[in-house]
Amino acid sequence: MTNNNPIGVFDSGIGGTSIWNEIHNLLPNEKTIYLADSKNAPYGQKTKEEIVALSKKNVDLLIEMGCKLIVVACNTATTNAIRELRADYDIPFIGIEPAIKPAANNSKTQVIGILATKGTLNSELFNKTAEMFQNTTIIEQVGYGLVQLIEDGNLNSPEMTELLESYLQPMIDANIDYLVLGCSHYPYLIPQIKKILPDHIQIIDSGEAVARQTQNILREKVGFSALKESEPEFYVNSNPAVLESILDYKYPVVHKDF
After folding, report:
1. What pLDDT is stored for residue 65 in this prediction?
2. Per the residue annotation, which of 74, 181, 189, 193 is the catalytic one?
3. What is the pTM of this model?
4. N or C terminus of the chain: which is more exposed, having fewer CB within 10 Å?
């Protein structure tokens, strides 16, 4: 079964490119369309109703562009809107949620940390997942300000270092041995996080698992592309400069109102 239509990927901004990277590396022949809804970032401080409405707006555009499946490359959008999206659209969706399970199952200290947005940590889906691990202490921390600094192009700023130290030190003091990154923007902070965390603390994000699930859905339901190569498309509804820089200027980024 072949299907040359594109895979759609959306996020509240540029962070979901960390997920896109994993998908593109695993499935290089697949055409991809990425929407960065940076104008409305961060989603994490918005109400569930606002997040659902924004997610549907993004989905409508990706379907209009002919996408065969859609990856919700945003923890906050997944945990607050994936159920509504699956109910309202006849297209496969792949979501992303914090990788609590591998962290809890492999933790020696039975204490893990999770750095995520308020919208993710307050969601029903996240709390249902967390309840499955009663024997593990989960230290939750809202990453206030981190997404906005990334979206503003201040990835390596003193403000970022200061915020990360204030969020991570209590987790270190609580003896975590795994840190779960619960926002698709946060993998871009891994080099700085590693400077703060002791070497024995493992960092987990969801990108590789999402890419494997995308491959599974293509195999089982949608069909793989028969294209030999395909140039990805990137769209953003604010200044393209930050998205271009996070992509190392390898691909053109188009400004589009949506």
Report:
1. 98
2. 74
3. 0.91
4. N
